[in-house]
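Sample pair:
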Amino acid sequence: MKYLSTTFYLAAIMLWATTSFGHDNGGSDPIVKIEDGFAVMTTKGVLNIVYKPSDEDFANPERGFYRASSTRSNNYSPLTVAELKEYRKGPAVGSAPGAYSTRSSLLWRYFIMPDFVDKPISSEFLAKLQADLDVIRESGMKLIPRFSYNNSQGRGQCPEGTICPPYKDAPKAIVLEHIKQLGPILTKNADVILTVQMGFIGLWGENYYTDYFGDASANGGIRKLLDKNWQDRIDVLNAMLNALPKDMMVQVRYPQMKQRTVYGINAMTTTAPLTAKEAYSGSAKSRIGFHNDCLLASADDLGTYKDYGNSSSAAKQDIPNLKPYFAEDSKYVLVGGETCSDAFSPQNNCAPEGIADLDLRKLHYTYLNANYNNQVNGDWVEGGCMEAIKRNLGYRIALDSAKINTEVKAGKTLSVNLHLSNLGYAAPSKKRPVYLVLRNASGVTKYEFKTDVRFWMSGANLSGSFKLPASLKPGSYEVLLHLPDANASIASRPEYAIRLANDLWEAETGMNNLKQVITIL
């Protein structure tokens, strides 16, 4: 179900009049009530409710347009709670006529470390990193970090002209030492980290212009990567995977990086993508996602869909194999990035003129940069698809319908069936519990559904038969749905709970109030 009209509500309610959750309605007519946002049919012993989705843009955890930030080891700019809380309110981005606002729950942050290209990271820098993570947790945000050594391109006499070596990144031994230092801090703060981008290698940490890991640009002369370059990169990625919790993903810039990490240096671009059976297993294949930093900047997203060759093969563009691989693999790994150029116009516009909103869904994007490139983002505003993109990045879970017993005796079984649709581009990327909640003045009782939100690609049908405790006090109980963060440290924080795309949200509790009351006898 998508955007449902009141006419649809009535049609659905009358259809349900003959299927009242296994109860005979005794031939009596159903009682139908239409209210703002939902419609209710009450038959004997059962509430049948149809809900209307909302088109509101709101901040939901682990998805959406992120806000970009950066800091340097030689001039550290700490985060503040006030700044991050402001991002959640939706300050304006860009300029007219392409200006827009969006409520953000994610902060993407560069940690640039020019001081440490030849030595360990200082304890002072690590302490400042921890302070930033404390601020992120207090503000109710989550972080996407990338570590690099240099973000300033050098101009000169070289084939690339505007980007010339030296690129001023760090050698492999130093990178591996730094990953070992950062691992404990990132693991300790995994509750407020969405994913870590591979980073470290090359200018901007984008794994392309690099002094030590193989320069595939025109500056490097051979315009490809050699076997040693691939092995060095694979060693860095594996070090990151080993340093982080088994349920945390690491995002790579190019899909071929994942293929060759999983299948070896000679892996073809036709290698098999991740399957549902392999997903979320803790293997390297299940933990490597993608960040595309030049989304819709050219036909191959400026080298995203490129085979970079090896010692025995040449580099070449390979959109026909790598883009479908990306599309299939991304069903079960985290995808995000940014646009970087408006040169690929009108293809980077909204459909039907372009493919922007179509590709975002096809490639399962969970997040994008709100700050860059705002020429492209502004085109989406003017083209009329920005509001849909804001809503649909990542997951957008809407409650369609519910069937709930109206009366249950304490000690007996409460039967519930909820149907939810995912209107977004991707499923939630992290596991979290899903609770049915009964609440009255005497307290709260929770029952957990057996489900995994990471597989809610199109939605879910939640059915539960919950044995009520015999000690449950008689009376009227509100019914709510709660999807809190899985980490105990922030499980009680409303900012980290999933809000359904209906007018059911309780900001003070982080629960979705189904606006129905049942009686416990």
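The first helix runs from residue 6 to 16.
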